[in-house]
Design goal:
single chain; disordered N terminus; 6 strands; transferase activity; transferase; 3'-phosphoadenosine 5'-phosphosulfate sulfotransferase (PAPS reductase)/FAD synthetase; Rossmann fold; about 45% helix; alpha/beta
Amino acid sequence: MPPIAQLAAAAAATRSYPAVPGLPDIAITSEIVAAIRAGAWIVFNLSGGKDSSAALFAVNLQLDSLGHPRARRMAIHADLGRAEWDSTPDTVARIAASADVPLTVVRRAAGDLVDRWIQRFESGKRRYEALETYNLIGPWSSASLRFCQSEMKAAVIGPALARMLRGQQIISVLGLRRDESHNRAATPIAKADLRHAKAGNRHGTAITLWHPIAYWNSEDVFRAHGTLGITLHEAYSIWGATRLSCRYCIFASLHDLSASAAAPANTEAYRELVGIEARSTFPFQPTRWLADISPHLLSGGLRADVERAKADQLERRHLEASMPAGLRYVKGWPPRMPTLAEAEDIAAARRPILARHRLENRYPTGSAVQARFAELRVAAGRQMSS
């Protein structure tokens, strides 16, 4: 039996509680059942999207059937600031209120997600100027670097729960589904979360992640909204999006980006993000410029800036491809010293990129690049030995 099928079979064996008519059972384990019966805190992670809302309402009913006290349930929402739809805070509040669970809203202290994208590019420019990176680093989060989720949500919610519910057993409910993506295909029903409550910590705090709708599909989720009377975010009900996250998500489809751009309340954020594309020369998605979604919303000057950025991106990629492949980033970079000829190629490739972003050219010659690599190798050696 394939591993996923084994997980499904194991989960099915624990599904001994009646599901809502017309909806699938929730995925639950014997450990989660025991924790619920022991009165663990149940915390619903609410984004305002369809999956987290469906998970909240479906689990609430199961908790009632298990005799879990409602006084030990709460919802939590990580507010991403300008990146959020304007209606998301109110939608989240309405969903929590209709489910009769108190809501806590948390935010990253160092600014919102748009600030984080801007800060990432500014930091990347400083590192590139200092020849601490081989290629210029763009502002956006990506499939391989999901700081929009890790830093802005998990790293804000986790510590908040550990503080608020210190010494408690906490079940953190997330509306993740296996059919959402290849990366989520092996989502477990439940697992210990040791990031913010280490095993054996002195307070006795324990956090477990629970994914009760892991086996549901999108149709099940929408059906739950109709059956249970759950508020549906305007992104779906008015603008026809298939999923909700930020106004503009680095994972969003062309359809969903277009749906977001159609909402007048999202226009200002659209122009701000396109402005970051224009300044950075990095498209919002690896193969798609956000500027191309609704160019009619942009001023003539901003459209011209984007066209220059596209040309500069092509030049930058060509220049970076011309640099010695054997010196590209690996753990413990740089891997070796460049020859003088290689160092001269690096200096020549960096020159127009530095100029494009108005950065100081601190290492303009091959010998200067070699000297910098020598410094970097010494520093890397110290780090590896410490």
